[in-house]
């Protein structure tokens, strides 16, 4: 082995070692149920700039709960930072990174729901069955900790352990409310549900982008999305992989992934983009959910220049034709003028008149 090879290998080993030392590492709790506390610890390398470059993000975006004190940050010695919350919500689900740099390492926090989603269709009663009941004892149904009694909106079937929900189509009082069932002698709910209207995503049917200029696509809901909604984007019916060129952002209602941002669109991005919406991640691939689609057309960034160049070319050609015509016409007029002044065409002098005058 030559000396040059040994030196090269030494430098490679040193570079790999430094990269491993400076890379941040994460420790955190496992899957968290909604309402439980959670924390993520980020351990940085021996870098004096770790604290100055510290900046927690979720899915590449700033964390809005930080400004509301729902999530807190604690910085310890030895380049360690801890992100925590006393009560998990579904919005906390995502990929967390502790550095503002383009680090590819992150911690994937999974939030598990403590309820089952139920979709209420218009003009169709919704039947909910109480699960996890070992016997046929009487059960109590509650909505937001208030006992549900037989009324026009609710019908209870004690034998089949079911609750039928049939409100008016314009009644939204039942949506996103906690509905529980439990035996009379128990304070712990056997099952927990939440009712939502069927999500109907909408998009502008046609979108236009300029090559190289940032584009944002919006996925709205005709029935208003609730915070529990899950959104999935597709391009030409294919799932979109996370890249540095394509990012997601929450809208003003904190609906995650409701905005898709393409940093630098290319001509290859032209086609059909679609968003799928469901209140359960497992339902996003179902064929019976609503899908909104927009047809994207990407313009060449020089497209506006071609008409201008065409006009300039027309003006140039027209001016050239005019100049050539004027030049030929002036030459023709000059030749005619020379012909009129020729000696052969001069009038003869009257000699007889001159002779008479002298006499």
UniProtKB/TrEMBL annotation:
Gene3D superfamilies: Immunoglobulins. The chain crosses the membrane at residues 304-325. It holds the Pfam family Ig_3. It comes from the Eukaryota. Its main location: membrane. It is a single-pass type I membrane protein. Residues 1-23 form the signal peptide. Keywords: Disulfide bond, Glycoprotein, Immunoglobulin domain, Membrane, Signal, Transmembrane, Transmembrane helix. One of its GO terms (biological process) is cell-cell adhesion. GO terms for cellular component: cell-cell junction; plasma membrane. One of its GO terms (molecular function) is cell adhesion molecule binding. Residues 35-110, 197-292 form the Ig-like domain. Residues 349-359 have a biased composition (Basic and acidic residues). Residues 330-359 are annotated as: Disordered. It is found in: Membrane. This is Ig-like domain-containing protein. It comes from Aphidius gifuensis (Parasitoid wasp).
